[in-house]
Amino acid sequence: MEPVSQYYLSQRLKLHYVCWGDEGKPALLLIHGGRDHCRNWDTVAQALSDQYAIYAPDLRGHGDSDWAVGSMYSLPEFVLDIATLVEVLGREPLTIIGHSLGGAVALQYAGIFPDRVARVVAIEGLGPPFMEHRPAHVRMREWIGHMHEMERRQPRRYATLDDAVQRMREANPHLTEEMAHHLTVYGANRNEDGSYTWKFDNYVRVRSPYEFNLEDAQDIWRKITAPVLLIRGTESWAPGPEWERRAEAISDRRSVVVDGAGHWVHHDQLDAFLDAARAFLLKG
C-alpha cells in the first residue's frame, strides 16, 4: 500500500508528509527520529491503517522536506512544524507515535497542546543521555567550530545503492536486509554521477550549544493529560533507570521494555512493538 504525498508550509519551508488509509477513521501521527524519514514507518502504517488514518511527516532537513536556511534544527522548530501540520490536518484530538527525536517532539507537543492529543507512544523519546555539565562559553566555542566544520564538509557519496545499504546496516545491525534496503531507497538521492547521498541535511548532526534543559522539559511533560506509553529496547544506548526518573513528570504513563531491540525498536522487533502499541492504543 503506497501512501499519498502532500506538502505544507511552516516558517517559509515546504515540508513533506505522507498519508495512509481512510481519512474518516481516527487520526494517527507518526514522527520519525533524527536523520530518518517518513517512509521508515511503512510497516507500522500498514499494520495500523485498518484502524487509523495515518499521517507521517518528513521533519525539516529530512526526507523530501526543505532544508532550513541557517540550519535551524532545534527541538522548538520541530515542535512548531508539527503544530502547524496538526492545524493543517484539522484532525485533533489525534494519537501520536514518535521515535527518538520524534518521540521528544511528540511529548513536547502533547504538553503544550494537551487538548489536541488523545494518546502518545514515545519510543526512546525522553531526550539525550545525561551528560557532564560544561561551561557555556566552552559549549559556544565548540559549537561555532562545529558549524564552521560543517560549512567545509561535503556529504558522503556511496558508489552504489548496495554500498549505502551496507552503511545503513552498520548503523543498526538489527536491521534485516529487506528493511535496510527499504530505508535506503527512500532515504537517499541518486546523484548525477550515479552515486548516492543521504537526503538529510548534514547540519542536523550539530548539537545545540544549549544543554538539554530537563527542568523545562519536565515542566511541559507535567501538562500532558493524554495516556503515554514509553518504549525502549534492552540493547539500546538509552539509559533505562535514568529515563525512568525523567519520566516521573508524566502523570499517566506506562513503560514497556522490548527484548532484543536496540534504539529502533519498531524496526528491530516489529511484532513485539505492534503488540505493545495495539494493547495501549486500543485500550478503552
Proportion of strand residues: 15-25%
- Strand arrangement within the widest β-sheet reads 1-2-4-3-5-6-9-10
Instruction: Give the overall pLDDT as a whole number.
Output: 95
Largest sheet: 8 strands, mixed
- The CATH topology annotation reads as Rossmann fold
Assign the CATH class: Alpha Beta
Taking the alpha carbons of the first and last residues, their distance comes to: 29 Å
Uncertain segments of ≥5 residues (pLDDT<50)? Answer: none
Quaternary structure: single chain
Describe this structure in words.
This protein has 284 residues and is α/β, with parallel strands linked by helices. It has a single domain (4-154, 211-281), classed as Alpha/Beta hydrolase fold, catalytic domain (Rossmann fold, 3-Layer(aba) Sandwich), CATH 3.40.50. The chain has helices at residues 42-48, 75-89, 101-112, 136-152, 161-171, 177-187, 214-221, 240-246, 265-268, 270-281, and strands spanning 4-10, 13-20, 27-31, 53-57, 94-99, 117-123, 188-190, 196-198, 228-233, 253-258. The two termini are 29 Å apart.
Summarize the structure.
With 284 residues, this protein is α/β, with parallel strands linked by helices. The chain has helices at 42-48, 75-89, 101-112, 136-152, 161-171, 177-187, 214-221, 240-246, 265-268, 270-281, and strands at 4-10, 13-20, 27-31, 53-57, 94-99, 117-123, 188-190, 196-198, 228-233, 253-258.
How is this fold's topology laid out?
Elements: E1 4-10, E2 13-20, E3 27-31, H1 42-48, E4 53-57, H2 75-89, E5 94-99, H3 101-112, E6 117-123, H4 136-152, H5 161-171, H6 177-187, E7 188-190, E8 196-198, H7 214-221, E9 228-233, H8 240-246, E10 253-258, H9 265-268, H10 270-281
Parallel strand pairs: 3-4, 3-5, 5-6, 6-9, 9-10
Antiparallel strand pairs: 1-2, 2-4, 7-8
Helix pairs in contact: 2-3, 3-7, 5-6
